[in-house]
Structure formats: structure tokens, C-alpha cells
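Q: Given only this backbone (150 positions), what sequence would you predict?
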């Protein structure tokens, strides 16, 4: 299926990649994290090639720092663009605490509290030992209060 899409739209590689990531997202939403991870990992291998673990970790960190900075500056459109670039380059990040937390923060700032809570709840399911759980729990409470406010 991927090859058919890629052959029909060879000029739009990012669009094809986002469509493939979207298929992984469907599995992620259904709680099939292993299947989502397989799809994300395949895409990442094709994209990164032999980048190496150091460059991968550094790349993820650069995206995380950029998103965090943009959110603090309330530059939401730019933050969403950076989140999109992050998932294009490192789709397996969608199963990591840092990406999920920052995406949920973006959703919270956009006023989409229910979706932010949903994303943060997934974090505990995906990685119950995540170092980001305390921040996630705090943001869940903040989003619950905001959604209950008149």
C-alpha cells in the first residue's frame, strides 16, 4: 500500500510519510502500541538510514527544545510546525514521553483539553516508568480544571 501511494505521489514525499505515520497513529489510538511502533520504526529507518544513535538523540533533543521554547512564547503555529517536523524525522518519538507531553501542552494551549488529557493518559499506558509522568499528571489536572471552568 505504501509503495502504491509513493508511486502515485513521488513529488510529495512528506505527504506520503505523514500518511504512513497516520496509519501508525490509528494503531496508537487503538492502544496497539507495538504495531504502531513497528510502522513508526520502519519509516524512521528509511528516513534516518545509518544516522546513528547519537545524532538521533541529538535531533530529538533539538526538536524538543524548539517546541518547548515556542510554547513558552505562545507561538502555537510554529510549535505545531516543529512538532510535525519532529514526527517526520523521528516518528518513534510519538511513543515517547517528551513528544507526548509537549504535544499535549500544545493541545492544552489551543484549548483542546479533552484531547490533551487523552494524549497524557496514553503516556502512562505506553511507558508507566516514564520520567515525564509527574509533569503529565500535573497537566492533566490543569486541563481538567480549565475544561470545568465556566
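A: Predicted residues:
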Amino acid at each position: 500500500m505504501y509503495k502504491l501511494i509513493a508511486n502515485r505521489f513521488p513529488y510529495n514525499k512528506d505527504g506520503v510519510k505523514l500518511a504512513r505515520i497516520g496509519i501508525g497513529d490509528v494503531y496508537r489510538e487503538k492502544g496497539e502500541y507495538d504495531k504502531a511502533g513497528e510502522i513508526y520504526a520502519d519509516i524512521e529507518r528509511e528516513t534516518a538510514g545509518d544516522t546513528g544513535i547519537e545524532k538521533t538523540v541529538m535531533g530529538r533533543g533539538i526538536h524538543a527544545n524548539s517546541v518547548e521554547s515556542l510554547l513558552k512564547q505562545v507561538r502555537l503555529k510554529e510549535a505545531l510546525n516543529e512538532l510535525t517536523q519532529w514526527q517526520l524525522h523521528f516518528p518513534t518519538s510519538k511513543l515517547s514521553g517528551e513528544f507526548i507531553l509537549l504535544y499535549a501542552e500544545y493541545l492544552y494551549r489551543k484549548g483542546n483539553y479533552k484531547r490533551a488529557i487523552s494524549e497524557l493518559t496514553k503516556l502512562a499506558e505506553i511507558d508507566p516508568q516514564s520520567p515525564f509522568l509527574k509533569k503529565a499528571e500535573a497537566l492533566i489536572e490543569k486541563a481538567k480544571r480549565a475544561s470545568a471552568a465556566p
